[in-house]
Recover the amino acids of this structure.
């Protein structure tokens, strides 16, 4: 499942997790906004959430995930699994067209509407139309060993913005150390 109009990446390296998202919102082939905030902090700034997809759908999932994180005392794995189960089985939620990346100090997860909760084998994962470009760049940077998580996330997003017409370079980068 891929969504046009956004790119979000999460990178984990040396005990630090960074998440970056671009600011572009598109409607068809028109840029509607260039400075949207698609990466946010929740749970006393200990959890990062990034989203791609239809805006209203993404915010619905974001709010539900935030509730699950509170319900499970910050355990993002449990919150993610419970959200994915609910998303998969609820008739209204099943129609939502969005994806979430969530992260805390030790874990990065992708949550999809197909019931997937994926923890990457590598130190990076990305979603959205420019996600594969950002992901490939992050893997190359991780392999060099010279940059920190936030710098890898930012540089990877800048590469995606140069390639993907649905991704801009108005970036938000958040980090948890």
């Amino acid at each position: 499942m891929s969504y046009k109009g956004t790119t979000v990446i999460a990178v984990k390296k040396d005990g630090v997790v960074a998440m970056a998202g671009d600011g572009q919102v598109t409607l068809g082939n028109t840029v509607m906004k260039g400075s949207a905030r698609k990466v946010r902090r929740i749970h006393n700034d200990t959890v990062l959430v990034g989203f791609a997809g239809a805006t209203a759908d993404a915010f619905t999932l974001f709010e539900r995930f935030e509730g699950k994180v509170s319900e499970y005392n910050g355990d993002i794995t449990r919150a993610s699994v419970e959200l994915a189960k609910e998303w998969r089985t609820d008739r209204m939620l099943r129609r939502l067209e969005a994806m979430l990346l969530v992260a805390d100090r030790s874990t990065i997860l992708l949550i999809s509407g197909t019931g997937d909760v994926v923890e990457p084998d590598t130190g990076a994962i990305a979603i959205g139309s420019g996600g594969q470009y950002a992901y490939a760049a992050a893997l190359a940077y991780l392999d060099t060993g010279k940059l920190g998580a936030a710098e890898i996330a930012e540089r990877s997003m800048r590469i995606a913005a140069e390639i993907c017409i649905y991704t801009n370079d108005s970036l938000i980068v958040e980090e948890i150390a």
User: Anything to note?
Assistant: Residues 7-176 form a domain with the Glutamine Phosphoribosylpyrophosphate, subunit 1, domain 1 fold (CATH 3.60.20.10). The first strand starts at residue 7 and ends at 13. The mean pLDDT is 91.
